[in-house]
Specification:
The protein is of the alpha/beta class. The protein has a single domain, classed as 3-Layer(aba) Sandwich (Glycerol-3-phosphate (1)-acyltransferase), CATH 3.40.1130.10. Helix content is 30%, strand content 15%. The protein has a 7-stranded mixed β-sheet with strand order 2-9-8-3-6-4-5, with helices on both faces. Strands 1-10-7 form a 3-stranded mixed β-sheet, covered by helices on one side. Helix 7 crosses helix 8. It is globular, with a radius of gyration of 18 Å.
Length: 266
């Protein structure tokens, strides 16, 4: 079964002045008044600077980002840069108010990335092993005793927002989404928190070629998806139905096709 989005309107790839969405001067002049620490302010500014020439426009429900916590932000994942630059730019738009993204612990082994994880208050997930495997000896330094799901639950219960890449890995396919994992749907139902879908588009990219790093993109933020009322622990059928709604929304916003039975690897 396939779910494809209707043809969307042509994406505007630059601001009215022909420049990317954010300028470096705008990023570094901002106060980030909601940031909890100087370290968080610094990583937001550094991460946003990395993506300043990469993100050409942000469209859609930008206003929902501010003043509607908690929510669960979900988006497609095509480039490594997205994991640092996009959260930073979104938190810049929130004046430094954090979105706690879930991310694989093994990236902490990359020089410099731990700093972004630490001050961005990323929720590390222990699902993937390190490569080479002997580096797994460092896992206890970066992963807490509780699961990433349990820590994400506590963040939502505290009234703060989280972010997830439901595909679970980088997907270089320019036309199709991976089936995705249902963690966002489960958390949304369990805590009765809305989903805020986001699509990353690459206008002008040749769809016959895999996506690579540093391709300019347009961000489209959709309308929030309210979870149906669920009594107690959500049933598997409820989770799957809600997951379907989430992935269909991301497909529309990203201009891709969602195939629920497609294999996990891109």
């Amino acid at each position: 079964m396939k779910f494809s989005s209707p043809e969307a309107e042509p994406s505007r790839t630059t601001t009215s002045g022909g420049e990317p969405y954010l300028s470096l001067s705008e990023i570094w002049r901002s106060s980030c008044q909601a940031s909890p620490s100087w370290g968080t302010t610094l990583v937001i500014k550094l991460g946003a600077s990395l993506g300043a020439r990469w993100i050409m426009d942000i469209q859609g429900e930008k206003d929902y980002l501010v003043g509607n916590d908690p929510f669960i932000l979900v988006l497609n994942h095509s480039q490594k840069l997205e994991a640092i630059a996009l959260p930073s730019i979104l938190m810049h738009l929130r004046s430094g108010n954090l979105i706690h993204f879930l991310a694989d612990w093994n990236y902490c082994l990359v020089p410099g990335v731990w700093f972004f994880y630490r001050f961005g208050q990323v929720i590390t997930v222990a699902r993937k092993p390190a490569k080479p495997r002997f580096l797994n000896v460092f896992k206890p330094l970066f992963v807490g005793r509780d699961s990433g799901f349990a820590r994400a639950s506590r963040v939502l219960e505290a009234g703060r927002s989280i972010g997830l890449f439901p595909e679970g890995t980088i997907n270089r396919d320019p036309e199709r989404l991976l089936p995705g994992q249902n963690g966002a749907a489960m958390l949304s139902l369990r805590h009765q928190v809305p989903i805020l879908p986001l699509g990353v588009r690459f206008p002008g990219h040749d769809p016959s070629r895999p996506l690579t790093e540093f391709i300019p993109c347009v961000i489209k933020i959709g309308e929030p998806i309210r979870p149906p009322h669920s009594e107690g622990k959500p049933r598997l059928t409820e989770i799957r139905r809600h997951h379907r709604r989430i992935m269909e929304a991301i497909a529309v916003l990203s201009g891709k096709i969602w195939q629920p039975r497609r294999g996990r690897s891109a």
